[in-house]
Amino acid sequence: QVTLVESGGGLVQAGGSLRLSCAASGRTPSSYIMGWFRQAPGKERDFVVAISSSGGDTRYADSVKGRFTASRDNAKNTVYLQMDSLKPEDTAVYYCAADRTYSSMNSYTTPLMYLYWGQGTQVTVSS
What we know:
This protein is mainly beta. 0% of the residues lie in helices and 50% in strands. The chain has strands at residues 2-7, 10-13, 18-26, 33-39, 45-51, 58-60, 68-73, 78-83, 92-99, 116-117, 121-126. The strands form 2 sheets. Strands 2, 4, 5, 6, 9, 10 and 11 form a 7-stranded mixed β-sheet that branches. The protein has a 4-stranded antiparallel β-sheet with strand order 1-3-8-7, with no helix packed on it. A hairpin with a 4-residue loop joins strand 7 and strand 8 (78-83). The radius of gyration is 13 Å and the shape is globular.
């Protein structure tokens, strides 16, 4: 069992930055692949980024490439999402997710690959 708690969301103007954190606890979370997803009202939960257990491999959605950066500190069991050049269309609830590494990184771009989820943190970008 792994418990995930996100923090760092808030209201920011377009062009601004936020850093989200996801603190993990439980059974060896440092060995798990981690993902960030987001869900806007009335829309499906969309993939943002996946990061490998070591942090050395990442996959980003095209919509955030060059603006968002994922990282992790396994000593602190925490994953981060640095979001720069934010746009109003980035407004959503952001969720972190985790699961063991069963397959290649490319497989972890869908929510179906993740067993554990946080409660989400709201990010609102004003124009």
